[in-house]
Amino acid sequence: MKTEALHAAHQTEEQPLHHQFEEVSQQNESYVVGMWVFLVTEIMFFGGMFLAYVLYRWRYPEAWYEAHTRLDVAMGTTNTVVLLTSSLTMALAVHFAQLRNKRMHMAMLGTTIALACVFLVIKAFEWSAKFHHGLVPGPGFLWDGTVPMPQAQLFYSLYFGMTGLHALHVIIGILVIGTLALLTFLDHPLVKNDFIPTELVGLYWHFVDIVWIFLFPLFYLIPK
Amino acid sequence: MSTAAPVLHGESPKAPPSYLQAGHTIKSWLLTGDHKRIAVLYLISVSIFFFFGSLAASMIRVELVSPRGVMLESDTYNKVFTAHGIIMIFFFLIPAIPAVLGNFLLPIMIGARDLAFPRLNLLSWYLYVAGGLCGVLAIAFGGVDTGWTFYTPYSSMYSNTNVALTIIGAFIAGFSSIATGINFIVTVHKMRAPGMTWFRLPLMVWGSYATSLIIVLGTPVVAITLLLVVMERVFHIGVFSPELGGDPVLFQHLFWFYSHPAVYIMILPAMGVINEVITCFTRKRIFGYHFIAFSSLAIAGLGFLVWGHHMFVSSQSMYQGMVFSLLSYLVAVPSAIKVFNWTATIHKGSVRFQTPFLYVLGFIGLFVVGGLTGLFLAAMSIDVHLTDTYFVVAHFHYVMVGGTIMGFLAGLHFWWPKFFGRMYPDSWGKLSALIIFVGFNLTFLPQFVLGYLGMPRRYHYYYFAPEFQFWHIASTAGASILAVGFLIPAVYLLWSLKYGAPAGPNPWGAKGLEWTIPSPPPTTNFLETPVVREEPYAYDAEAEEREEQAKEPTRA
Amino acid sequence: MNFPLMPDQASNFARPYDALFFVLTALTILFTVLVGALVLYFAVRYRKGSRVDRSGAVESHLGLEITWTAIPLLLGLVMFWWAAKLYVDTRQPPKDAMEIFVIGKQWMWHLQHSNGVRENNELHVPVGVPIRLTMISQDVIHSFFVPQFRIKQDVLPGRYTQQWFVATKPGKYNLFCAEYCGTQHSEMGGYIYAMPPQEFQKWLASGGDKKRPNQPTMADLGKALYDRLACANCHGPQDTERGPSLYGLYGAKRRMTDGTVVEADASYIRESIKNPYAKINEGYQNTMPEYRELTEEDLLNLLAYIRTLGTAKAPGPVLGNAGPAQIGGANR
Q1: In what order do the strands lie in the sheet with C190-195?
Q2: Which domains, and CATH codes, for chain B?
Q3: Which residues, other chains included, contact B479 with Cβ-Cβ below 8 Å and sequence gap of 6+?
Q4: pLDDT beyond 50 at B7
């Protein structure tokens, strides 16, 4: 890992060692491995709905195609760019945390939050358009396409379920990144001289981004 | 907690306080990061849930003595058996051994000061309690009547009970489980003391590790599945609803994808305990260490491939069924390997028949019956008749009570002196073990017959087949004996906390790092990080026997 | 006091089932006793203080490990294969089985004979004749279980499931619902009455228990519904541009617009009526309306009528007709 070299180059204070660990390298590796294991659980968590999506798309391909034409590809694409950029800024935040450049570290965290908010705003516009057109599953579902209404409703159930769960993860991400930024600002012992919390949050944020990279083509880019 | 500090043999008066003594405020307990205190918190909570789950069980058995019930309406009965299943599975069997024994022992067994993530560990416990409170709230609001399996579309569209609240409780408890799993995996990988290689690990650690792998891979799937049921009920996002072209059987696939491996979450830790107890009470190295270690991993892996054996009559194709049936026979083999290795361990040992060992004997007998009756259910055509009958109920109680609970009790009685520095009276322990064994068999053996006769599960009334009554009465009689068997340890274990003989660091003369530190241990476990040079279970029965006999040469 | 140990053997599956069951029981007892005896023997023989030879204890033995891996594995594979073979039999009803239709709902069973006789929570069948049950639920998942026949199959909403049996001796046998379905799950039971064939014929012809002979058959009711819904407007004796002919449809294979070939079994026909868009015959568009208000009974009646079209002579060529009705299992 690059970290040893960076430490040697920029270390003025020791990274704090938590009581259960013997060495900082053990500590850092433990946290990172722990976060990866958590991300595996997140993959399994989303996996259930991805499975349902795959199954029903295989069964009702025409319904899937037609239902998806009501989605706004422009907004979806914009959101993809926004989220990818936020991953970049998050990675930069980790980089600056390692360099102990507090100003840039916080600037990158802030930018990431801003981009995440943009994502949510665009999503809010998308969703309210759906509400307006009666595409929300339930008794109020309105459908005037050629495929049967039940299958269109199935598509939109998965659409709202999966993008909703993803949006929830974005919101949680904003809260966590915000907390991290605040703690960094306050030089709180949890984060002072320790880039690992930022790295962990970064891993989480990249995961959130990757889920969207799968959701976007699956929902917005269905071929005829 | 003991009022008199136990005597710590050989320790200087300036020895650090035990983890029980380090702080007496409520805050020091509720905000602890110490894995041992968290284990005790879990012990108290799982015991409370076990008690309520058992109450529900007694109500079931009372109702079933008569073909037309005794005192409950059917709606209430349905809520009671649902509560019994949910409480026992999600709030007792899944957490008990990992969160009580695993939490306490895992760091010590590998020579660490604590788990990798102590605060996450505390969060685990709070999530568990929060999930439990949701469940309690659901019961207070009138309960839920879907069965612990929540099959759709009944649970998503037809039941008028507190499905969403109950699911939220199970969901939160699931994350408690996941957090523990993550903690254990990282701990075993990263926190082993110098010299503690993988193949020097106590097999309980292997068992806990394999369990944690299952937890992190399986639990999230049931979490999202149950969440989808809630979303269908509350937001009409229906992926299981046939009216929308959805597939109610998809729920079953997703549900059992976790819930089958879940049974291995319940049994692998118990098997881990057996390794520790059997070696100590036969004074022998475990037979086939590598085979037992790898069989745990095999069970974890294969366990994810057999879920469809719960669905042979659900409408899945016969080809799907054949794959699941074949794999189910394969997954039985590693368990058989363990049983034979344990049997061989006893050979040429020096056996002490104390309480923990009696529970080991009980485990082996009952687990063998439970496991073999599982093979009936793995046989496709045999399962057609037996599925959804009392045969299944009998099978899973043999493995879950006869297996997991016996393992839990074996561990509790083995490590009680380590946890609390006190010994319980062994004769009471042995008596309870015997009562539990007899009561258990009388309760559940008749249920195999009932199932074969055709008595379906989850039945309140059976007046269409009153000839079933004889076996139900026998079963209820057994249950009352079993209840007594479970109550007695509660009494003498609690009694021992104040009045039990003080236990030294190693009352059993056992090997293992946990027995090299005081009972109860200090907060940081070890004064110095141990360096491991010995293989595990470095017992020598022959040498010990020779020593014993050298002391009394005239004894016949 | 009455304590039975096993259910009656009243179907063609019962004997082979019990044979396998008893072998499994024998093996279970054998291994339980074997392990139990060994464990107890070793524990007692080698108890602390006993003066026996403990020298030369080994910690591992590859030969033993292989042996006690291979033997259970082999036994398991044999049991798997035997049970799978028997299972395949239970899922392949004979072509000439007598059709009975089952609708499960909270909390009772409706059973229908083709000739129109209906039963609630009871089913009369002739002994010695293969019976095929085509089943569906109106609400939640149920399960049709007859212990004395050793048969059980879940009954699902939205699609048909099937099972078959031959009753081998006259008698009255328990029918249970075996999938938890709510408040009266345990009261959703009844009886199967197996009768000697001649008695059954008399019973059936006289209109069953309700003694209403000359009722309209399921196919009659189906035709009436077919006419009322004006299906013939699109589905004539020959294929038209509006719709394919339904003559000889049942059991035939048809090619869909996406190129797949589908067998027109009971589930296909039901889906085509309720959800026609799901599968469209090659050469056609999605123009068939959905008939969503039809009850399961209506759909079964239509199915029965459409089957009779399979035996009528089809005037003119029909796309993809593969010949006589091949009974397709909805379980496949």
Answers
A1: C122-126, C190-195, C171-177, C142-146, C151-155
A2: 36-549 (1.20.210.10)
A3: B57, B58, B61, B439, B443
A4: no
CA dihedral B327, B332, B333, B338 (to 10 degrees): 150
Contact status, residue A186 vs residue B271, Cβ threshold 8 Å: no
The question of ipTM being above 0.85 is answered as yes
Chain A residues inside the 8 Å CB shell of B247? 55
**DSSP states along chain A:** -HHHHHHHHH-SSPPP--TT-SSHHHHHHHHHHHHHHHHHHHHHHHHHHHHHHHHHHHH-HHHHHHHHTTS-HHHHHHHHHHHHHHHHHHHHHHHHHHTT-HHHHHHHHHHHHHHHHHHHHHHHHHHHHHHHTT-SSSTT----SSS-HHHHHHHHHHHHHHHHHHHHHHHHHHHHHHHHHHHHHTT-TTTTT--HHHHHHHHHHHHHHHHHHHHHHHHH----
Q: Which residues pair with B389 in a beta bridge?
A: B456
Query: Quick one: DSSP state of residue C9?
Result: -
**pLDDT of res. B9:** 46
Cα C123 from chain centre: 15
Query: Which residues does chain B have within 8 Å of residue C60's beta carbon, measured at their own beta carbons?
Result: 287-291
Cα dihedral across residues B371, B377, B379, B385: positive or negative: positive
Helix pair B390-399, B248-282: axis angle to 10 deg: 40
pLDDT tens digits along C195-252: 999 999 999 888 887 777 778 889 999 999 999 998 888 888 888 888 888 888 888 8
Q: How many folded domains does chain A comprise?
A: 1
Give yes or no for a contact between B116 and B106, defined as CB atoms under 8 angstroms apart: no
Give a yes or no: residue A207 inside a domain.
yes
Residue A13 placed within a domain: no
Distances, alpha carbon B324 to alpha carbons B258, B260, B300, B333, C76, in Å: 15, 12, 16, 15, 13
8 Å CB contact between B308 and B323: yes
* Residue A16 lies inside a defined structural domain of this protein: no
- CATH number, position A48: 1.20.120.80
Is residue B56 classed as helix, strand or coil in its secondary structure? helix
Taking the CA of residue C159 and the nearest CA in chain A, the distance in Å comes to: 15
The residue length of chain B stands at: 556
Higher per-residue pLDDT: C284 or B359 = B359
In terms of Cβ atoms closer than 10 Å to its own Cβ (0-12, 13-18, 19+), residue B129 is: middle
Q: Which residues of chain C does A150 touch, with a Cβ-Cβ cutoff of 8 Å?
A: 275
Contact at 8 Å (CB) between C10 and C148? yes
Tokens 């009369």 correspond to what residue? C124
Q: Where are the beta strands (DSSP E) in C27-150?
A: 98-105, 108-113, 118-120, 122-126, 130-137, 142-146
Nearest by CB: B529 against A22, A38, A59: A22
Q: Which residues of B508-531 are buried (b: 16+ CB within 10 A; e: fewer)?
A: bebbbbbbebbbbbbbbbbeeebe
The tens digit of pLDDT for each residue in A1-47 reads 565 655 555 456 788 999 999 999 999 999 999 999 999 999 999 99
Residue A31 belongs to domain spanning: 24-220
Chain A neighbors of C258, CB-CB under 8 A? 61
- Residue B332: phi, psi to the nearest 5? -75, -25
CA dihedral B249, B250, B254, B257 (to 10 degrees): 60
**Residues C254, C255, C261, C262: is their CA dihedral positive or negative?**
negative
- In sequence order, the β-bridge partners of residue C124 are C193
Q: Shortest Cα distance from A37 to chain B (angstroms)? A: 6
Query: Distance (Å, rounded) from C-alpha B127 to C-alpha B123?
Result: 6
pTM of the model as a whole = 0.93
Residue position matching structure tokens 């005829």: A224
- C46, C162, C296, best to mutate vs chain B, most B CBs in 10 Å: C46
